[in-house]
Design brief:
This protein is an alpha/beta fold. The protein is 24% helix and 26% strand.
């Protein structure tokens, strides 16, 4: 069973609140938003529009592909889908706000921080997430959180965005069972 925890209006209000918090915490305006592909990049674009309404000049926007920075790259069951990284502004001396959809173990964020430092030395790195579901494996804490959603390991948080999925919503449902590509098919699918 899947439960909707944020609908379209909830997501909009949440992003407006996060944008205001980012501006309040960074009054000098020397910030840039960097989204993690895929849905984090979409959310960063939305936050960039909202923060640019509050700051002059417009807040720079970038996006990161962290595929080759992940610590599980060699053991993932399939080849990563690689997107281009765009950081077309100076990173040095600026506050970089990394944006992602769901914070879980912290490993994706660690990879994003590593990728960011390959482009320069920011003054600070902050983290904005739409959903924090807990279960951290690394000492990573978000600076801006849309919604804390306590979950079990048997659940999955799904963030859908209109630009990719055709709808804006956050749902919780059962986690998909992982089956290794080398595992035999389930008994019901084996030909007699």
């Amino acid at each position: 069973m899947t439960t909707v925890v944020l609908d379209r209006d909830d997501m909009r209000r949440t992003l407006v609140r996060i944008a205001h918090e980012i501006v309040e915490k960074n009054p000098d305006g020397a910030i840039a938003l960097v989204g993690i592909h895929r849905r984090g990049a979409v959310l960063a674009r939305r936050l960039q529009t909202l923060t640019s309404e509050l700051l002059e000049p417009a807040v720079p926007l970038g996006d990161l592909d962290i595929s080759f920075y992940r610590d599980d790259y060699a053991i993932r069951p399939s080849a990563p889908v690689v997107h281009a990284t765009h950081l077309e502004f100076p990173v040095d001396g600026r506050t970089i706000v990394i944006v992602d959809d769901v914070l879980y173990t912290g490993r994706t964020v660690r990879a994003a921080v590593d990728a960011t430092f390959d482009y320069g030395r920011p003054a600070r790195v902050q983290l904005a997430v739409l959903v924090d579901r807990g279960h951290r494996e690394l000492p990573i804490r978000p600076d801006y959180v849309g919604k804390n959603i306590p979950t079990s390991q048997e659940e999955r948080v799904n963030v859908c965005v209109e630009e990719i999925d055709g709808v804006d919503e956050v749902t919780i449902g059962p986690a998909a069972k992982f089956q290794s590509p080398t595992s035999p098919p389930p008994a019901s699918n084996v030909a007699a």
